[in-house]
Structures are given as C-alpha cells and as structure tokens.
Amino acid sequence: MLEIFTGKKKIFVTGCAGFIGFHLSKRLLDEDFQVIGIDNMNDYYDLNLKNDRLNRLVKHQNFQFIKGSIENLELLDYIFSQNKIDMVVNLAAQAGVRYSLEHPESYIQSNLAGFTNTLECCKKYKVNHFIYASSSSVYGDNRKIPFSEDDRVDRPISIYAATKRANELLAYSYSSIYKIPSTGLRLFTVYGPWGRPDMALFTFTDAIINNQPIEVYNNGNMKRDFTYIDDVVESIYRLIKKGPPKNTRVPYKIYNIGHNAPLRLNYFIELIEEELGKKAVKKYLPMQPGDVQETFADIEELENDINYSPIVTAEEGIKRFIRWYKEYYQISKKN
C-alpha cells in the first residue's frame, strides 16, 4: 500500500532518479514540499549512479519512491487515486538523440505512451498544473538564431525530437479540451554534478582521465547552449511557485530554458582540459545523423515571467562537475 501524505502540497515527479529529476526532487524536498517520485530504473546507463541519487532522496521523510514505469497506466491510476496530487512534473523519458536512431521503440513507449498515460491521470484526477520536459531538439536544424518559442518546430531531424514535439502537441490538446494547465520546458544541453554518463561533459572527462580518445564530431565546429543544472532547477522551481498558465482559453505555455550563451565545442573541451590539467586525445568524426550545428536559447519569455536568467558560467560549471566527478569516483589528485 502507498502511504497517503497529508497537509503539504504533493508533487509527483516522474523520472525522479534521473539527472534533472533527482536535482529537482532534492530542491523541492529542501523547500518542504512532499514529493512522490517514480522511476523505472532502466539500464540505459549506470544503475549505480541512479541508485546513489535515489539513496540521497529517500533520506527525506517527505519523499516516497515507487519503482515503476509511466507506461503502466494501472499503476499510475492507483498512485493518483491514493494521493491528492497537486502538481505533476514529468521528466521521465527515454533520452538521447543518437540512441533513438537504433531503438525507436523505446521512445514510442516512454515518450509517447507513458506521456499520454500521465496526461490521462492529470485529467481524471484534476491536477492543478502539469509541467513537462521538452527539448531544444524540437527546433531541428533551425537556421534562425537564437531559437524562439514562436519559431516553427515541425521539422524534427531525430526520432527523439519528434517524440518531444509530439509531447508538446499532446499537452496542448489536453489543455485545450480538458483545461489542464500545462507548461513545457525546452531544455538546452543540461550539465552538472550527477549528470548523465552519455552526455559530452561526462564522456569527455571520463575519457581524458582514463587516457582514452574522445570523439569530436564535426571537427568540434558546433555550438551548444550548455545550461548548468542549478539554473535549470531554479527556473523550474520558480515556475512551480508562479503557478499554472492563466490563459482561460488554452492554459498552455512553453519556455526555453537555456544559458543564452552558446559555446563552441572546441572551447568547451579546452575548459575541461584546463581543469583536469591534461590534454585530450581527439578523434575527429563527421557530423552525426540527428545532430545540429548550433543551439541558442532566446530566454526573454522566461526572464519576463520568473525574473530569473541562468547565472552559472561554463567555466564555473565545468569546475563544479569535475570536482564532483573526482570525489564520486575517488580519483586521486595525481590524475
């Protein structure tokens, strides 16, 4: 049986053992919210990392964890029926642009079927606000810089991007038909401590420390709007505190969450080398299918609505990540 929380606001966080889900859940718990978290604990990447994140959450008395999948509608319905959930933050998804080319079925199940199940429960149990993770990948190979929420996003160039755009359309439909207030978050290359091992900063750091070559696509001549995890969490937290969109016709809103300062990949690698005190052995490769030349977030809407813009520079963010990495993996100072 699920414990039924009483009193404080309850937020249902899907993907709570994931990178962003862990950091957001911790922040909400620190702010005295009650968090019900669900995660299927799949092996897309190192389960030890997911378990270590989760172990830090379960220490909080206001946290309840359910191991399960949002594709399981019966389980979701039971969770909602046993708890008066005020708000849902849907971060559960099969991640990774390149992985989607090889395993499209994983994305259809998690990012579409699971997403729809969550919306169905929000409808049935009259949740006050549905917040969900979209992605900068919905912009595809957009040539207009910076990317604005008003830009066309009907030409995704990866399966992952297509599922994220589909999420936005599904959320809009439910907001329009059932008046479920929803807020979409187009996240731009989130990085930081406890990050995903398949992301560039993690893979580069790991390879350089272990004297392995790093794969650099398009000769490093790509730009990414790298966004530090604390800035992402602060933005989401302020959107939670702000409350749901107030539009009475369709209570629906989308925000870019990015640093608004893209970095060239080669410079990003130089910052890692500088912090590690060690040069990378680079293996240059062509642009990969599904990749884009540049991402750059226009964050005017976000700044106007929550009075916040990201503040952690790449120089500082990389330093914090590498400090965490060395501590977590017990890397000696000589490395």
From TrEMBL:
Pfam families named in the record: Epimerase
Domain NAD-dependent epimerase/dehydratase: 11-258
This protein's UniProt keywords: NAD
InterPro entries membership: Epimerase_deHydtase (IPR001509), NAD(P)-bd_dom_sf (IPR036291)
Superkingdom: Bacteria
Keyword NAD annotated: yes
Name listed for the protein in its UniProt record: NAD-dependent epimerase/dehydratase family protein
Naturally occurring in which organism (per UniProt): Niallia endozanthoxylica
